[in-house]
Amino acid sequence: MPSGFQNSQDQLTPNFYRVVVTMSGGTATFSSTATNNDSGAVEVDDFNAFTTLNTSYNNSKRRARGNIRWHAIIEELSRFNQPILLDVTATKAGPAALTAADDVSTALAFTVGYAQEEYVLGGWQNVIGAGTLSDGATSLTTTSFEGLSDANLKTAMQNCIKEAVVRGITRGGASGYTRTYRTMDPTGNDASFQDSITVTQPDTPADIWADVSVTRDDDFTQSAT
User: Fold this and answer.
1) Quick one: which of 52, 86, 67 has its CA closest to 179?
2) Global pTM exceeds 0.85
3) How far apart are CA 212 and CA 218, in angstroms?
């Protein structure tokens, strides 16, 4: 048997990628105006995760939008293979830890890994085809998983993960979509209830793409050099 690097879906050793989403000071604009359907960032927690709750109903809906975007990212990352998510960190300006439900994240970082990257790459190849990714310029390789070198597979997977994150953040586009989601109104004795929350994209997919970075964490990766 020849030695050297070989792609094989049967070798279930996951590669891990660090994802960083910049939501302040980058190309994209994330609105903080709580009454707007495009407001909020990407929030890994809903209001109930905080001791200091939202001070207004609109602020609660803004946090709900951000939490819905986070779940949309997870759904996009899970389309073709079950991801492993590690080290999720959201921070506000400073950077500092989020301590109140009114806080808005300005940066998000997490690690995602897949044990079977072939399914992820093949799935996104079927979706993208001969088109471009969300930046409108980058093409996804059409070479099969088995035919890629380690370096080219690394690039392809970084693009697939980035595409999934951008699609999660911008799901619904400018028209948006509506989900029934838990929120709260502090004027009602801090009571939580299910409400219809409309979420629109914070900015264009191309601008969001510019503020998402994905790098393979080779400290965890088992690959030939």
Assistant:
1) 67
2) yes
3) 19
